[in-house]
């Protein structure tokens, strides 16, 4: 099991800077896209709800400033009152071909490529519009631009390149190719670009290092093929998965209109401190009353020592049932983690924007990783927060920094500054100790983990031992 961490925000100044120091988020939408968005930044019905006295009574200057910023914020929205999709046209892409075209599309292909687990995730996210406005894998020029500048050739922000890799010498530009995965034909692709990438440069720019000690560098160097392919795709079907992955359109249909929607990203089972983080985020000073939180875990490939996606999915399902919180929405993302720190934070924000989110909860060392040799972190604790804050306005989003939550004997979960100021007794349980207790069958403290989640994890351990 991956080591359990609580996301930390060590300085109140970070929260002030992330909310109050920037202008209200706006996205410039071309006139051609006016049909897709409302004429005014926020419809009259979407005016921020009054902030409760309880929230104002927190009393700090930071809260006062943030409340003022909340009252002034205006998000660009669709005519339905939801977050606009990413891209100059503010349009959610749908690349799925009509069923009556499938046979002709496959018949027009002369080549076939078997997708890896990671490739299949990218094909699915392209087809359903999670990578909007992309309509296929990036061509070389787009790849080069995103690698070098974190922007597409038209200047649009994009965190990481989206490409298809292969070792095939036969596939060439102009070919129509069937993309298959575990016996399913997922899509057809028209190859318009093929090249041998400069992988060390890609890794250095995207991950901040070209060292094989970084898990994503290992992936690029040792898993990906010799060639990269780019070109448009048309979807045939989505991968058959144990866990259902709602599309952006499906998730949007469950969201309240003219309201803030927070996104919580995770790739591990949710323990009680995590739960406290996103529940308390709903009351953050820059979040309107009545907001909801989309708990949106990634269930695709991650690090080798992470819990398998299918097991993680089961822990989320039992937790959803146990908590039954009407302010939460649950969905699962077939995304392949790169552990790219700051760049991946941007990628996650773009994806969640396409799913309809206006806010992104971002914790300490988000999507970070350690050297496989020295154990040192590849990124600073707040690098991802800084880059996310820097681009939040451009993305028509706001960030909500995670609080430093501690469990105390006297008052249960409180923020670390309260625990220190009141000299409360803080209880700790390390990830290593937690894993040992799970394997040994010891009692897990109820303040640390949900009983339903523990039961799923113990069942997994038992099945592995058998």
TrEMBL record:
Pathway: Sulfur metabolism; hydrogen sulfide biosynthesis; sulfite from sulfate: step 1/3. One of its GO terms (molecular function) is sulfate adenylyltransferase (ATP) activity. It is an enzyme of class 2 (transferase). The keyword DNA-binding does not apply. It comes from the Eukaryota. Residues 85-236 form the ATP-sulfurylase PUA-like domain. This is sulfate adenylyltransferase.
